[in-house]
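forwarding from the other thread:

> can someone predict this with zinc ion?

sure thing
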Amino acid sequence: MWTREAKGEKVEEGIEWSNARPSKTHMALVELEKRGHVQWLVSQNVDGLHARSGFPLNRFAELHGNVFAIHCPSCKYREIQDNPVEFIGQKPIGRICGQINSRGSTCRRQLVDSVLDWEHDLPEPFFSDSWAQSEAADLSIVLGSSLQIQPANTLPTLSRKMVIINLSNTKMDRKAHLIIKSKCDFAIEILMQKLKIDIPEWTGPTIVKESSLKLEPLPIKEAKPKTTRRKRKTKSEQDPDYTSHSVPKAPKNEIPENEL
Ligand SMILES: [Zn+2]
């Protein structure tokens, strides 16, 4: 079991992950996808809550991994487990893949966890799919991210419009058409009330492999960054995107937290 220091105490992350419950935001996204309002979801969290909330696996990308997911580096077999992995960083979990390929032979590679370390590139096809979906989207909504980690932070800026819902400032605020400084659950509840859609209750871990709606294939353009290794922006670092960005500035409708 891997641990972290929290307020001077060692906390067993595995137990924390297992007990974590999807938020209202997670569950609202499940319902919005079912109704065709959400086409694609990108998550930078490794808590696995989107997968366990019942959001269809073929409709989202966990770009930095999922502590409940294991996969085979060779044949790309993927599995969501009931319990979190004991180690992270794409390390072997001590189980052979065992999938039978199209030629009838058994894959003998070791399955590994899916959580990235800093030296790992973002997983494919998830990053390419996210890029194509973001480029094709009319609107990307950023929920609870300060957009500091490259290249994932570029994705919402590719869409025609970007709305950011986050308590603090983000690295991409200048590119946003609307910024709502709020906790996600609070803003999403208001949105769902306006849409007159109930947020479903979470009844326990639910894995949904495919959406009931058809996902249209999208062309993948060749404008992706050369490296998809993660990088955190520093304050002193120039952001070339800021100067080359061509979307006209829309008036921002900033809503201070205390007015929500
Ligand atoms: Zn395999």
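The mean pLDDT is 83. thats all i got for now
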